[in-house]
Amino acid sequence: DRYQRRVREEGAQDIIEVPIRHEVFKSLLEYIYTDKITIKPEEAVELLMTANEYGLERLKQMTEKLIEEGIDVENVAWLYEISDQNDAQQLKGFCKYFLLHEFEAVSKTETYNNLNKQTLEEIH
């Protein structure tokens, strides 16, 4: 009884709480068990962040490709920042290419105008 209480107390210190939505957690488990993902593109960014947090490089690459399919003029600047923050080099390169080729339209968006100075310097 005393041993069990000690183990429970010590074990409780090892629990890490990570804020992750149910749908994204299900996709994480799906990937772990099947090496596949079936996730809505709008949830892929959160899965990318989770993959980065846990060092799941293959999952990160899979989510980067999925995110690339949904890139448009309105979200590309935001996704560029997300890719930079999560060391998603493939996505970052794709975003930069898209930004440069659609610069006139992208530069008029609110998300582009909200980029920090360092990010703007990287893009140019």
Could you explain how this protein is built, in words?
The chain is mainly α and 124 residues long. The chain is 72% helix and 0% strand. The chain is built from nine helices and no strands. The longest helix is centred in the middle third of the chain and has 14 residues, at 41-54. The model is unreliable at 1-8 (pLDDT under 50).
Key descriptive features of the protein:
single chain, 124 residues, mainly alpha
Beta-sheet strand percentage?
under 5%
Based on Cα principal axes, name the global outline: elongated
Give the class from helix and strand content and strand pairing.
Answer: mainly alpha
Query: How much helical structure, as a percent, in the residues?
Result: over 70%
Total strands: the figure is 0
Short description:
With 124 residues, this protein is mostly helical.
